[in-house]
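Thought: the user asked what Peptidase S10, serine carboxypeptidase, Alpha/Beta hydrolase fold protein looks like in 3D. I have the sequence; next I should run the structure tool and report back without guessing.
Action: structure_tool
Action Input:
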Amino acid sequence: MESKYITLSFFIFFLHFITLSNSKSIVKNLPGFDGDLPFTLETGYIGVGEGEEVQVFYYFVESERNPSEDPLLLYLTGGPGTSGLYPFLYQIGPLSFNFENSWKNNITLELNPNSWSKAANVILIDLPVGVGFSYAKTWEASRSSDSIVALQSNEFLRKWLAENPRFVSNPLYISGISYMGIIVPKVALEIYNDNERGNKPQLNIKGCLIVSPLTDKFIDFNSRIEAAHRLALISDDIYKATKETCHGKYIHNDPENILCANNLERVDECTNRINFSNILEPLCDETNMKPTCRVTFFLKCEAANIFVDAWTNNKDVQKALNVREGIIDKWEYTNTSIRYYLDKEDTIYYSYNVFSSIADHQQLLAKDCQVLIICGDHDMTFPYVGTEKWITSLNLSIESQWEPWFVRKQVAGYQMTYAQSRYSLKFTTIKGAGHSVALYKPEEAFVMMDRWLASHTYSSSSL
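Observation:
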């Protein structure tokens, strides 16, 4: 243990003297991709916090349509603890793995036809500190929390725009997925308030876009029982008995309520072998997958984790991305010491100190703010049922009733729009999608995002 702290002390001492020049660069080529990148990719570090002791690594992709006018999205990756490089390579970014022609020692990349950069300028960042290639220069700065991530995201964005002033006037949306539903509204609110205080630069914030959000740690986890009933995973009698005996509270329930506990056991028997990320997919152990799980989708999931780990830890890749040498011992796509799950206690690295972002959403009602919430209708991680409940709690007027929306003349999902004064909120589901919506239904996720941005920020003849 003592040697571990000596090593940490030496590492922190080393960071104080590392050269911080060339903090950003344009990436022209990447190992695994044949030829020059047909899009503009910038990577680099932005220092935030006292003395810029936290160095945030980012990936910025210019819009492939009209970068000078298209919206700017700051995209926060879920977990918390997952690197921005993961969605860059496997969900919404301009590149993806060529699974048919890759293996661990020879990974090839191909273009993603549904990259969000085809409609917007996108910044993906490695936050909290300790995720991806981001790092802290002191032990104190290496500790983070929900509220700190919100403050650092705002500071990062302001400093990045100060270095890239040509994007200051672009419509700005704070976006993210999963756990970042706790943080995205808080970041947006910070920016609105900073603008009202006259802070410079004045950011052209228009709203936020959140995918499969965790919004309230009681409502969203508690909604899993109702969602399981709607999805026919538990019967009417099990649901009715559980609801009555638990009084509608399925988490943090009274341990002396034996009837509730017994019914929750019945629910668990029905759902503990269900894949909560998408109930249509088999539940597989990705580290020791059985032959029955080696269907195409799970082969890709398994391969993606192996490929992104091997590719990113390649020294040539890190050099191409302009990563500072000697900072990260081993890159991991998820920092498991930070990642949250139900009832997880604070760690020495991270404090989960925001229980609900509903209050932030309520404050956004007074702003000129547009919000898009996208949910997969087969997601049991944070089911759409919980999203409906917290949206209802905002007491908004209904602008357009529940209705289907279409891609290629087929029903892609359902949508409903709420409004109050200058504020609007669109809630949409994507049919058949799970938690990582763009992974399961990439075209539908892109089309919804593109249409919604177009309706607020520019007209598009392509829709």
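Thought: the tool returned a structure. Summarizing for the user.
Final Answer: Structure for Peptidase S10, serine carboxypeptidase, Alpha/Beta hydrolase fold protein predicted. Residues 89 and 96 are 5 Å apart (CA to CA). The two ends are 60 Å apart (CA to CA).
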